[in-house]
Amino acid sequence: MSVPPTRPERRNPAMRAAWRSLWRSLWLSPGRLSLAAAALLAVAPPLLAARPAAAHAIVVESRPAAGTAVPAGPVEVDIRYNSRIDVARSRLGLARGTGQAGEARGPEERLALTEDPSGARLIARTGPLEPGPYRLRWQVLAVDGHITRGDIVFTVVPRDALRDAAPGGTPQAAAPATGGGTIR
Fold it and tell me: Domain CopC spans what residues (predicted)?
């Protein structure tokens, strides 16, 4: 078994001491140390200063909200995010069913998106929906370059059932969505 070659200063203690002494005299002299400390103090504050974080697109509010019931017929979809998104590279799909394992699901229909001036919302309108569970599946590209995906499950009920359940006969207002999605 051969021993791997080492640098001369590692084999010879006197050589090691000479290298150490040279290193200390060049780099750790009091003048250089204070100069290095001054440079560090000058550079550190801008590097450590608080900056706004580039946030992933997370659902802040949605209409319909997750877990709510909406009347049968066309549904206005409005999903608001916490940051600007690239609407041209974003998708919004609608499928019948909740997406649970073992559940019969319908095909996913891609919804046409309406332009949003704020750049932080997906807006679309569905065709007439029959009563039952539905799943909005969204995927957005945030300005930080990350893709975020998620689902919003809601239920469509007959108009009569919703009118009887809600006080005043009006559907529920938009509420914060739960389960913001998956970051990819």
Answer: 56-156
